[in-house]
Amino acid sequence: EHKFWEDSFQVYERGVALFKYPHVRDIWVAYLKHFVERYGGKKLERARDLFEHALSMAPAEEAKPLYLEFALLEERHGLAKHAMEVYERAVKAVPKTQRLAILDLYLAKASEFFGIGKVREIYESAIEMEPPYDLADVDCRQMCMRYAELERKLGEIDRARAIFVHASSLANPGSAWEFWDAWKSFEVRHGNEDTFREMLRIKRSVAASYSHMQIQSVVDAARLSDSLTARAAQASAANLLGRDPMSALEAAAGDEEERSAAARAPSTALKGFVSAGVIQQGNTEQQRQL
């Protein structure tokens, strides 16, 4: 209020050094806002350092608004190339659920500043990103459909078809019906009988693949359920006997050893009868000791 700008910025510096997230978020927002309003592009390097410091402290789920403000600063007072670099960093830094929104803005700015070449580059890099920077399957399908529509408008029919083929493995025909409807409409408008049959063949193949995955998951779940049921039965039997599961297993092992020993011992039909062979063996051992 008294126009001691640097003194106020020093107070902000003390605040961001003292507090941690999530409490420091409001301090950073006010600090960056007032600094950019005060200096604009006059102290651009200092503003960049502030944004980098804020981003280094922010967890991934809190980084999105900081990246957007940083990119806006570069658009207004810096270079468009630097703004594109900030958007590219943001796509990889934010959580997977926020990446599609960043990509939409990134593509819009790329189309505004650099044209179709840069837009294609962004689409391809987004579709081919590997974990942990990849998109969710539903978001990747959306990107592929938009990219194919862009290529169709540009008259690149073969490129658009190749994009549909690439994305087909992510589209379960049982749930991702909008993808297959879009591809069907595309082939009706721009394809022929052979390309339409190829689309149907790929659809059947993908459906079979997802059916196999579902069957395998059901089998695995059944095996896990059987294993848990068997363990629960053992634990229940141990509780009924008043013993813990380990004691029950030890007792079972002891019973098994007793049965094995009984099977190895000479059998007789008379209760309490000891065979002569055993007695003679004992006598022979006594004689040796004598």
UniProtKB/TrEMBL annotation:
<feature type="domain" description="Pre-mRNA-splicing factor Syf1/CRNKL1-like C-terminal HAT-repeats">
    <location>
        <begin position="1"/>
        <end position="252"/>
    </location>
</feature>
<dbReference type="GO" id="GO:0000974">
    <property type="term" value="C:Prp19 complex"/>
</dbReference>
<keyword id="KW-0508">mRNA splicing</keyword>
<dbReference type="GO" id="GO:0071007">
    <property type="term" value="C:U2-type catalytic step 2 spliceosome"/>
</dbReference>
<keyword id="KW-0539">Nucleus</keyword>
<comment type="similarity">
    <text>Belongs to the crooked-neck family.</text>
</comment>
<dbReference type="InterPro" id="IPR045075">
    <property type="entry name" value="Syf1-like"/>
</dbReference>
<dbReference type="GO" id="GO:0000349">
    <property type="term" value="P:generation of catalytic spliceosome for first transesterification step"/>
</dbReference>
<keyword id="KW-0677">Repeat</keyword>
<keyword id="KW-0507">mRNA processing</keyword>
<dbReference type="InterPro" id="IPR003107">
    <property type="entry name" value="HAT"/>
</dbReference>
<dbReference type="Pfam" id="PF23231">
    <property type="entry name" value="HAT_Syf1_CNRKL1_C"/>
</dbReference>
<dbReference type="InterPro" id="IPR011990">
    <property type="entry name" value="TPR-like_helical_dom_sf"/>
</dbReference>
<protein>
    <recommendedName>
        <fullName>Pre-mRNA-splicing factor Syf1/CRNKL1-like C-terminal HAT-repeats domain-containing protein</fullName>
    </recommendedName>
</protein>
<dbReference type="InterPro" id="IPR055430">
    <property type="entry name" value="HAT_Syf1_CNRKL1_C"/>
</dbReference>
<dbReference type="GO" id="GO:0071014">
    <property type="term" value="C:post-mRNA release spliceosomal complex"/>
</dbReference>
